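FORM 12-B: Structure-to-Sequence Request
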């Protein structure tokens, strides 16, 4: 994932030297692991373990969101893990 910001720096000279012009400021961000969610592309993934009969006939599960609210999600079909 690439995040882009347009930053305005308050200095005029930057890191200018007699032989080099100032260049862009580059920030490298690293995604840290989360205890409940994993990132898959642009999606957040949360695994829930259900008994087989609930996975087959459907169920409702409560998932804690990133802002600590609880959302009810309906399970309508069996989903096999792609990994």
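FORM 12-B RESPONSE
SEQUENCE OUT:
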């Amino acid at each position: 994932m690439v995040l882009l910001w347009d930053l305005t720096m308050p200095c005029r000279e930057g890191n200018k030297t007699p032989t080099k012009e100032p260049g862009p400021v580059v920030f490298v961000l690293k995604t840290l692991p989360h205890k409940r969610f994993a990132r898959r592309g642009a999606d957040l993934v949360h695994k829930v373990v259900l008994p087989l009969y609930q996975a087959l006939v459907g169920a409702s599960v409560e998932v804690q969101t990133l802002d600590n609210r609880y959302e009810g999600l309906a399970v309508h079909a069996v989903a096999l893990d792609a990994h």
